Amino acid sequence: MRHGRILGVLAAAGLVGVCGQANAGIITQNTDTTSIAAGSAVCNNGMVHLENSYYRIFNLSNLGITSGEFKSVQIAVEAAQGGPQPIELRLHTLAGVLDTANLVPLVAPIPVQVQDQASQLLTIPVMPNASFNTSDEVVVEIFVPSGIAGDEVFVIGSNTGGQSAPCYIRAPDCGAPQPVDLATVGFATMHIVMNVDVRYCGDAISEMPEACDDGNGTEGDGCDSNCTASACGNGITAPDEVCDDGNTIDDDGCDSNCTVTACGNGIMTMGEACDDGNTTEGDGCDTNCTVSACGNGITGGAEACDDGNMIDGDNCDSNCTVTACGNGVVTDGEACDDGNMLNGDDCDNNCTVTACGNGITTRGEACDDGNMVNGDDCDNNCTIPGCGNGIVTGTEVCDDGNMIDGDTCDSNCTIPACGNGITAGAEVCDDGNLVDGDNCDSNCTVTACGNGIMTDGEACDDGNDINGDTCDSNCTVPGCGNGIVTPGEACDDGNDINGDTCDSNCTVPGCGNGIKANDEDCDDANATEGDGCDSNCTFTACGNNVISNGEECDDGNTNDDDGCDSNCSVSACGNGIMNTGEECDDGNTNDGDKCDSNCTATGCGNGVKSNGEECDDGNPTDGDGCDSNCTATACGNGIQSDGEGCDDGNTNGGDGCAADCTVERPGDDTTTAGGCDCGIADDTDRSTSRGFALLSLLGLLVGRIRRRRPAA
């Protein structure tokens, strides 16, 4: 059984990506986190899946998450059959490029038994939760062992929705022993659905060991950004704190009351004689943390004034200087006062702690407008607002603080992707939109046939210049008449006109190509004779110069007596055609049927012995063996030949010609039976002769009388 696409030999591994979005602990790189489309890639043998691993790389530190716990991983399953079947969830950190050698396990592989299902989301709990504390990228792997032993099929779920980072596959049995980007092996739109549930400080879910979690980074609102209750010593400097180093140790730069270690903060540290935490002079410990001296009302020595008290801010401060920023005494409105007007020395000349946002532009700052608002004239990192300053403002989608293209954020502050207006990586062009046909198509290739995008004038575009696949190199669907010669075609001139250089069935014009040309009677695309259209493209018939069934010859005309007659038989006696030298031709070799076998009219002397003839030697010569009446030369055949005195056609004597064909004379002994002398009559026999003559005359008269009798 085959599910999805069969993945063959894969290409080399690709580069790692970054996390997409996080929301209430759920981190995903998918735009569409629930839909499951058919057609995911899987390495298989045509029946079951082989070993496959699927990966996504999450750069949690880019989301501000450097520590936390994995609670669960949700994946999509396109199909699972033959189960329950085993898979494993593996969690790693990545120490270098994406390679199995660089994967450092966070926890032991988590086994999962997958029930048979289709197009479902599968949530895999991580029990106990897997803790992490690292700025390294985290790799989530779904390991699927070979299904051969159990006759199992597992196809991970994916869709074609957007993704903020690549997904990867490792398939040792299909030529990919290391993870490779699916997009680099022909599956650019296969976006594996994977959602990671991470517990971390700031996810608005308070879980051990957090004291609280209000889901924001606001300090001093009861729950600080490190998920501890707002208080001095929790490591977060709240608005009412000058500092907070996360401990209650004094004299380490930030004292236990969350003020900068300094005289006057109420904490006596090294170098101070006293520190009573106020600015009152004359109370035993002056504002310079020395025993009160100045403030006795007498201006003396280095004092600029002394108003008789240790009150600061009353025009004469407790150090006996005129109340002002820079006199070394912090008074109302001042965050600090280091006794000078230098900037950048921890207390600037406006008596605020040297820092971005205090209104003083110091070293490393391009500007400082005294606030932490972004998008005004100066952003909260004290740089001029603009793409590349590291602060996302206005229409910026991202800002990584540099103008390098092809990293996590391009120089126009958009996520690197085709259509963002920056040509990077494998892009040939990028015009800032995903409109096709405008010189730069939605796959960031120049608009042209063969770039994989079908635009105006193209019937198809399969992204290559191979002919004979699903789309030819001129972006037309393969077929006769598209101008591309593919297997099975002898030619293709791009039209369906017959009689030019290539006919409409993509064969070279000529008899036998199945296309009837003007000089052809027919064309049945074969060289078979006698099938209605002969091999010279004329209708099967006598006289078309092709010898077909029933013909002895065919000379291409209907002339007789030219060797091949008009009935397509060889010119000869008996073929039914009367040619020169023939008296007749009845189409057979029978004699005595009015036209004999030598094509002469049936008759004595034509050389053919027929009915009633003893012989026929083809001439009228007598005495040559066959006489002119077609009887054998002999006495009594009626033909007087050499040696005969007469021949009356019989061998009777007494009739004037004797049986031996000699003339009878009077007195010859020719008496016949009955006593009649049948010799030649002389004068003595005249009466008898006259008697016979009279009888003959009477017979003739009777005949004439009968003919004249009128009809009754």
Q: Could you describe the 3D structure shown?
A:
This protein has 712 residues and is mainly beta. The chain has 1 helix and 17 strands. The strands form 4 sheets. Strands 5, 7, 8, 9, 11, 14 and 15 form a 7-stranded antiparallel beta sheet that branches.
Mean pLDDT: 85
The helix tally amounts to 1
The proportion of residues forming helix, as a percent range, comes to under 10%
* Shape label: rod-shaped
Q: Tell me the number of strands.
A: 17
Query: Roughly how many Å apart are the termini?
Result: 114 Å
The helix-and-strand class reads mainly beta
Topology as H/E string? EEEEEEEEEEEEEEEEEH
Quickly list its features:
3% helix; disordered N terminus; 14% strand; 712 residues; 1 helix; rod-shaped; single chain; seven-stranded antiparallel beta sheet; mainly beta; 17 strands
Quick rundown:
The protein is mainly beta and 712 residues long. It has one helix spanning 686-708; strands at 5-6, 21-23, 26-28, 41-42, 52-58, 67-81, 85-94, 103-105, 110-114, 117-133, 137-144, 153-156, 158-159, 167-171, 176-181, 191-192, 194-199. The relative contact order is 0.04.
Layout of SSEs?
Blueprint: E1 5-6, E2 21-23, E3 26-28, E4 41-42, E5 52-58, E6 67-81, E7 85-94, E8 103-105, E9 110-114, E10 117-133, E11 137-144, E12 153-156, E13 158-159, E14 167-171, E15 176-181, E16 191-192, E17 194-199, H1 686-708
Parallel strand pairs: 1-4
Antiparallel strand pairs: 2-3, 3-17, 5-11, 5-14, 6-10, 6-12, 6-17, 7-8, 7-9, 7-11, 13-16, 14-15
